[in-house]
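Service request form, structural biology core

Requester: graduate student, group of Dr. S.
Request type: structure prediction, single chain
Budget code: on file
Notes: please return the result as structure tokens.

Sequence provided:
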Amino acid sequence: MAQHTRLVSSSTTRRTSALLPFRTSGFTLLELLLVIAIIAILAAILFPAFAQAREKARQTQCVSNLRQLAAAWQLYAEDYDEVACPSYNKFCISANACIGNGNDAWDFHLVAAGNWQTGLLGTYTKDGRIHGCPDNPFSHDPSQRPYNGYAYNATYIGGDYALPQGDDPPCTLAQISLAAQTTLFADAGYTTNGPPLAENFLRAPSETPSYLNSGQVHFRHLRQASVACADGHVHAQTNRRFDPRVPDFGWLSTDDSAYGPEMQPASAFRR
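Core staff response, request fulfilled:
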């Protein structure tokens, strides 16, 4: 009797199992959709953080470049009787008799298109690549410099030899009374109706608008610009004055206080 019961039970189990649907070990559609949704949420959270970390790394390299440029500038001044590096090399004995031009500048000496040498600071920088900001968005440089992204304070420090009112020589170190507040170099460029353009001469707000209005600060690092000062330190700064139509470009101060505090423009120091 017991044997007969076991046979009936075994037979019933086989028939019941045959009637049950076969289930594989894969995911159902609902489970797949749930996994995809979780991945999308994680991506939305993590990707901006990764992008910001990458931008911070570029900003760190930018700060290193500017620190080297500031050190080169200080060495130049020490070797030239404490006179700042000129914005560019041009000597005029009269209105129509000049030697040199803007192509022989603080950063590069442009012999011809595609042919360049390091500029007035080249003895101290050695490598032209430190003139290139790693986060530089400029696809076009009108002067055809091989590396770009930074500009030198021409209004108060490097001077100009092409102003309508006459030549402006570079300042001396003695004339820089607040070195920690005086900008030497900064992320820079300018924009017109077209794409942003590179610029290697920085202009203070008092010189704009004018024919020299191209040298603006470019706040390219998460709406900040890297700025090197005359005491050698480098810091990140947000813009203090800008045109709402191009908020990534502007100036470091509403007046000239970030460019030459307690100084007069280089034209005041003509020799």
